[in-house]
């Protein structure tokens, strides 16, 4: 065991504070990672607030992790000391079910082991990336290409893969008309990725205040959802809508923007249900879907895709003492567009 510095939520709704946590000894299949940077995902906030159900506290969030390999177990052949690596939302899965064997560990029938707040296969509760080191099964450790700037690569491990996976699953490419709802951490990645895949990309944001940034990320069109005309003018005009909003919105209004056979994929995960009227779907054979992060193989593919296409999250680097303010700014939609913690400031 080793003791490492971390930032934890002591209880639901309480500010995060410095602490120390224990990391397990490096087993034969494990990799010890010196964490350098950790992104702040809105899911961290949902989780520590208890939006998704009760948690065991103290809880160290963080599932957008990059760092350097400090030690590898005796059976590890895929990573070496000094490698630039990343860890996303999962640190384990059964490895045997149909979904794991297909490389979709996020849909493991036993349930994948989340990077924090989950029961690990040894019975301990996982603790996440707002910390100085972590021990992870080598099968869940990604290679971070040299072409990617290290600090700004961290958000790819969740925001990147969560938007890349549905864009790939629904075969986005040249000719696809894609709308991204919400331009925060996930949204600003979805725009860049869909653009790089050749789609015609529209941003649907609450206001036009971030329009210039949206166009810079590759959006062809940008509309305000506070303007009712957006919904009449753009009716039945998209093949795929990626909803990244962290709060409840009127889904039926957004479904009306889909063309025949279009799909609205919800990746945003607010606490309350989002009612869907069947008559928003039936007359145009529309689909309403969800999608969870992406598998390990696909996450590596996404990292390589970003390196190849010079895609990078827009980040604001903060120290540990800025974490609670950053949470407030994310909640107020004032993030531009992902906070990343420099873990050398964790003490
Ligand atoms: P974020 O950075 O806070 O972005 C969310 C964006 O949604 C905001 O920037 C804002 O964009 C829009 N928004 C916020 N409140 C709104 C409201 N009341 N009405 C309309 N729009 C609103 O969050 P994130 O880190 O991208 O995460 C987004 C959601 O995805 C969260 O619920 C998170 O838990 C979830 N998530 C899901 C997965 C998955 O596997 N499915 C993975 C990661 C995250 P505008 O200002 O442009 O309107
Ligand atoms: Zn996340």
Describe the structure.
With about 350 residues, this protein is of the alpha/beta class. It folds into 2 domains: about 1-160 and about 295-345, Alpha-Beta Complex (Quinone Oxidoreductase, Chain A, domain 1); about 160-290, Rossmann fold (3-Layer(aba) Sandwich). It contains 10 helices and 17 strands. Strands 3, 4, 5, 8, 9, 16 and 17 form a 7-stranded mixed beta sheet that branches. The protein has a 6-stranded parallel beta sheet with strand order 12-11-10-13-14-15. It has a two-stranded antiparallel ribbon with strand order 1-2. Helix 4 (about 160-170) crosses helix 9 (about 295-310). It is globular, with a radius of gyration of 20 Å. The two termini are about 20 Å apart. The model has no long low-confidence stretch (mean pLDDT about 95). The structure holds NADP nicotinamide-adenine-dinucleotide phosphate and zinc ion (ZN).
CATH architecture of the largest domain: Alpha-Beta Complex
Enumerate how many helices there are, as a single number: 10
Q: Identify low-pLDDT runs.
A: none
Associated small molecules: NADP nicotinamide-adenine-dinucleotide phosphate, zinc ion
